[in-house]
Each structure stands twice: as structure tokens, then as C-alpha cells.
Amino acid sequence: MTHPTFSTDLSRLIHPRSIALVGASDRPQSIGGRTLSNLLDHSQIDGELYLVNPTKAELRGRRCWPSVTSLPQTPDVAVIAVPASGVLAVMEECAARRVPFAIILTSGFGEAGPEGEQAQARLKEIADQAGMRIYGPNCPGLTNVNQRLGMTFSPSFPHDLVKGPIGLATQGGGLGRNVMQAMERGIGIGLWASTGNEVDLQVADFIHYMATAPDIKVIVTLLEGIKDGPRFLAALQCAADNGKPVIALKVGKSEYGQRAAQSHTASLTGSAEVNSAVFRQYGVIEVDDIDELVDTAWLFARAMPSEREAIGVYCSSGGTTALTADAVGLAGLTLAEFAPHTTELLRSKLPDYAAVNNPVDTTAAVLSDADLIESTLGAVAADPNLGCVIAPIALDYGETTIRMAQTIIAAQARVQSPIVPIWMSDRLGEGYRMLVAAGFAPPRSVGKAITAIKRWTEWGQRHRGMAGQSVRRRPASMPQAPAGAVRNLSELEAKTLLGQAGIPLLPVAVARTRAEARLLADGMGYPVVAKIASPDILHKSDIGGVKVGISHGLQVELAWDDIMASARHHKPGAAIDGLLIEKMAPSGGIELMAGVTRDPVFGHVMTFGMGGVYVEILRDVTRRLLPLSAADAASMVREMRCFPVLAGARGRPVADVPALERLLMGVSEFVMANAERIEEMDLNPIWVGAEGEGALPLDAVVVERGVA
Fold first, then answer.
1. 84: Cα separation from own chain's centroid
2. What gap in Å lies between CA 263 and CA 172, rounded to an integer?
3. In the β-sheet with 388-393, what is the strand arrangement from edge to edge?
4. Cα separation, 549 vs 530, whole angstroms
5. In the chain, which residues have pLDDT < 50?
6. Coil, helix or strand for 197?
7. How far apart are CA 108 and CA 469, in angstroms?
8. Are 426 and 446 in contact (CB under 8 A)?
9. Of 240, 235, 207, 241, nearest to 221 (Cα)?
10. How many whole angstroms separate alpha carbon 320 and alpha carbon 395?
11. Within 10 Å of residue 561's Cβ, how many Cβ atoms?
12. Residue 253 and residue 261: Cα distance in Å, rounded?
């Protein structure tokens, strides 16, 4: 049997030349009826629209065909709006006609229990055999606003038709429509894909499409879960390669949210920490709520950030000016220092009692003079030392606020730096409506505006930092966990593997007898550490299984007695190999840790941070997907809150950061070389000495999975 060729090009789905609506209906409130209305009354279809209904000869003056089989030509897209019980038969017909794409609006599949899951699996089988791509099921459809095409049953489609450069990819329909209705604020969203159960096509596929779509400038996604990690990463990589920002809101960060997301789309929600690490690693802007997502996306749609990061503040209320300046400072952003000519113009135009240094407080005395506001605001926005201007409007003041809106619109027409008006009043007056009509989409609070500007600025910094660098790509596929059973390696086995991989270690060996323990210690030179050697005892310190600072042979023998007695008491059934003797690390140094786990979606993830007992208390950690690049390793070290300690804060010796980075790279290379067998590992603590002294794992736990 030959395998079908699957189309990865979605252009015929998003810009179809012909559409078949299967289940077209004259019942206006049915899914088939609403979809028919959106296609006939509110869409601009360039090609053919075929209506399929076996019980109707015609609908609304257009011929109906009894089946997909009877159509005079094979459509690019079949929009399926029949009851769940009839979907499989329709899909069989589509497969026989080699229809490239099917949009299944119908619910009652994977989200509906075991029978629905079986039917959904059969959908995928039918499509796979024919090389057909499925969008859905259990979705509201696909909306191409820039082409004015609504293959959707949503009654909101006719009202959400503001074209624009934002592409939106979601799994759920309700939150997606919520973002679409930000059009009421002047937002333009050109394409919305809401993928539902994702039996085949996923959010990742539409991110990938939008990454190269000429009419999409900014990509927005709302995620409940990620089913295919490599596919998702490839999409993010494509967006990064094309310089398009991706703004993501991931639900399911708490246990409550995870349960809700799973019941909604049956998606894997994954670890919130790992998902956030993926976003950071691929330059995705992660936001926490819908309004933050909308504010941030529209700022990117208006202008991409430049190397000029400082901010100007222009206001006519002293208290609002101070509030905004505070928010800028608290966010870690910078107020611009105006060029001399800007300050001179402001001083010549504004009253003596106005504040002309950034932030600018014009005072209310100028609100009656629109020309004066336009000239001074325009001068601030044109200043060469800033990247954007914030213009907070504290209240709706009738004609005065209308004039302020007019001046903002006029000033923006003459400058490139975005002016960000903030409409702070709950009274949405005419001035607000004018700003919306002009495409400003004013944020509704100072905090929301500053959050969006901070996200915008930070993305620009990262993007410029990557300029000229070769972009590292992850493997096209990552190994899933093999079927074999897991096994905890002994510490000696673990360290032997690490040593063979070139990771520096202290001398270590296992003594089988009391006398051998002393002999090994004498050979290594004191001081040494003694640890229980047992595959059944991972947390040795918890049972008194570790002695440190052993300085002579008699102490070795006493340590043997104490550790063995403690092990037998706390773990009477544990298999004991003997006593591990290891050369003790030099005095001083800092304890850190590095751990690796296998994420079910993305593969191996490294967690790095403060070690010893502090890792669980302080939780000063950072994460990356493996493999690491040298830049990843350097960033991980510097992202920790404790990095100033490594850098020599308060007279401490500067730590051997290069050795630490080499160690992280070595661990990454070791795991990737043994990806199928490494289930997890934990190096804690890692001793890091002063410059030139190195970085050494003092304890090592490796859990491997045998390949069945």
C-alpha cells in the first residue's frame, strides 16, 4: 500500500477556490443554516460554492447536490455541518473524491467520551488513507477576515470584520471570539483559526502558515494544550526566522486550569514551568490575560520596536504624570532624556509652570489650545532619543478631550514612533471613539499600557541580540519514552557514565569492606566523603548515609560502622553495595544544581539553579529544552537571582562561570547522546569554585529506561 502525500501548504484551505457546504440548511438557527448565511450573505467568495443536502433540490435559489460524490468538481474545502452520526459517511465520500481539506464543525467526538474518541480515531484513519487534512472537529470554523471569508457558523462573523495584520490561532472558540471582538477597540485581525479537537491540523500548523503569510505581521495564540512538541517548536522557529513576534496565552497553569483544559479539548496541558521555558527559549511573548494579549499584539501591529528603547510621557494632569512615571520606573523601563531642541521648543511653547523635562506635564492650562498641544506632543514624539510616547488621558472632558484625541491622531501621522494614548476613564466618550476609529486601540489603564510596552521593548532587545547569529534548530523529532522499565543507577554507575562523557569529577570508588574503604581513602588523600552505596537509597542524607570532612583512616572505619547501622535501621530491605568514598571538594565554593527530566510533549528539559537544600526553598531556577547552545548555557547562569553571588558580590571571589557553563553543555551533550535511555538525572550539589577552580558534580542520580 502506498502512503498518501499530505499537504503541508494550507493556502488552499485559507484561500480556497471552491467550497462545499455539506449540511447546508434553510433552518436559520442551525449550524448548517448559520454557515450558509455567513458564506452567502457576508463573505466574498471568489470561486464556487456548492451546497450539499440530500433532501433539498435548492436552497435560497441555489442548486443543492445530494452528496459530495455527485459534485461536478472536487472542492478545495468541504465544510461539514451534519450531525455527528453522519460525519464519518461524509468523510468517506470526501476521501473518495480526494478533497484536500475538511472543516468539521460538528461536536460529539474526542471531547464526548469513549465512543466519540473511537469515531474521532476513525476520522483520522479515513483522512490519512486519502492524504486529506482535517480541521476540527468540534470547532467554530475558519475566518479569513482579510479575504472576507467566513467558513463558520458563528453569528458574530458579520460583526467582526476589521481587517488587519494580526493572525490569531486558538483551540477554543469562546476565548478566540473574545479576542476577535477587540475589534471594537480598533484592533484588526486578518485571520482566525480555531482548531477545536485537533484530530489533525493544530494551532502549530497555523502559526507556521502565518509565519510566512504576507498579510500577517503579528501572531497571537491561545493554547489549552500542546499535542505535538516538535511540530509546535518548528512553527515557533519559523516565526523567529521570519522576524514575526508570537504572543501566547497558555491556560492550564494551575491544577484547576489543567483539569478544565483537558475536559475542554482533551489536550495535554503540560507543565506550566516547562511551557514557559519553551516560550522564553523561542522568543515567544507569554502574557497572563486577554487584555494584556490584545494590548501587546496591537502595539506590535502598529510598530516594531527599534533600538531606541527610552519612553516619553506627555500629559496634562500632574497626578497622572507622576503615576505614569512611577509605572515606567517600577517596570524597569527608562524615561528618555530629550534632545536639547525638544526641550527648547517645549519651554518656548508651554507655560512657565509646566514641566518640560520628561515626563512632560503641560498642565490643564493648555487644553483649550489644540494647536499648542499638537506642536508640543509632535515635538516629543519626534524626539530622536525615544522609541514611543505615552499619552495618558485621565478623564473624559468633552470637547477638550475630543481636541486631545484629534491632536494625538494628527501628531501620529507625522512621526514614526508610536504614540500610546491611555484612556483611563470608564466614560467612553467621543474622544475615545475617535482614537478607536483611527486605530489606536487605547489601553484602559496605565498598568496595562506599561505592561504592553515592556513586552514590546524586551522582544526588541532579544530580537536584536539574535541578529547575525545562526539560529539553532532542534531535531525534527524527539524520542518518546521507550516502553522498558526504569532503573536507578548507582551513584558510581552514574558518575562512571558522566566521566566517560568528559564531565569533570572528583576521584570516586566503592569499597566493599571496611578495610577497603580505608585503603581507598588513603590512596585519594584526605579529606574525603563517605556515602552509602545502594541503588535503593537515593536521598542518602535523609537516612544518615553521608559523612563529610573525614580526615584520617580511623574516621573512615567509624564512618563505615555508623553509615551501615543507619542504613539497616532506616532501609532494612535495601540492597547495599558498600561505601562510596570520594575525594572532598575544596573548601569554599558555591553549591548549585542541574537536573534533567523527560517532558511528555517536548522531550528532555534541564532545570538549573541554587543547589543543596536551597533548591526547594528558594526555587531560584531556570529551564531550557535540550540540546543547549552555548548561548543557552550562558543565559541560564545569568538568569538566576543569585548570579550576583557568582559574579563576586560584596567582596566574594568571582566564581568559575566558564567552567559552570561548560559543565551544563557537557550534561546536555551527554543526555542527547543517550536520549532514549535517560529518563531523568539530578546533579545536586554541583560545587563551583573561584575562577580557575572548576565546577564539579558532588552527587549524581541517573534514572534510565531500558529499551524494550
1. 34
2. 12
3. 360-361, 311-315, 388-393, 419-423
4. 9
5. 1-6, 256-269, 468, 470-471, 476-477, 708
6. coil
7. 48
8. no
9. 207
10. 10
11. 10
12. 10
Quote the pTM value: 0.89
C-alpha grid cell for residue 323?
Answer: 503615576
Closest Cα to residue 297, out of 310, 313, 284, 281? 284
- What's the distance, CA 412 to chain centroid? 32
Neighbour order of strands in the sheet with 166-170: 149-152, 141-144, 189-194, 166-170, 218-223, 246-250, 285-286
Amino acid type, 151: M
Strand 77-80 versus strand 101-104 pairing type:
parallel
- 61: how many CB neighbours lie within 10 A of its CB? 6
CB 268 within 8 A of CB 225: yes
- Using alpha carbons, select from 354, 356, 359 the residue that is nearest to residue 333: 359
DSSP 8-class letter at 654 = P
Dihedrals φ, ψ of 707, to 5°? Answer: -80, 120
Alpha-carbon distance of 528 to 580, in angstroms, equals 10
| CA–CA separation, 561 and 566 (whole Å) | 9
As given in the structure block, the three cell numbers for residue 260 are 478544565
**Element (H or E) spanning 644, and its range?**
helix 643-646
Pairing of strands 18-22, 77-80: parallel
Q: What angle do CA 604, 249, 181 make, to 5 degrees?
A: 155
| DSSP string for residues in 131-188 | T-EEE-SS--EEEETTTTEEEE--TTGGG-----SEEEEESSHHHHHHHHGGGGGT--
Per-residue pLDDT, 536: 85
Strand ranges in 489-617 using DSSP code E only, listed in sequence order: 508-511, 528-533, 546-550, 578-583, 590-599, 603-610
- Is residue 473 within 8 A of residue 282, CB to CB? The reply is no
pLDDT of residue 483: 63
Instruction: In whole angstroms, give the CA distance from residue 92 to residue 97.
Output: 9
- Rounded to whole angstroms, the Cα distance separating 661 from 655 reads 11
Residues in CB range of 214: below 8 A, 6 or more apart: none
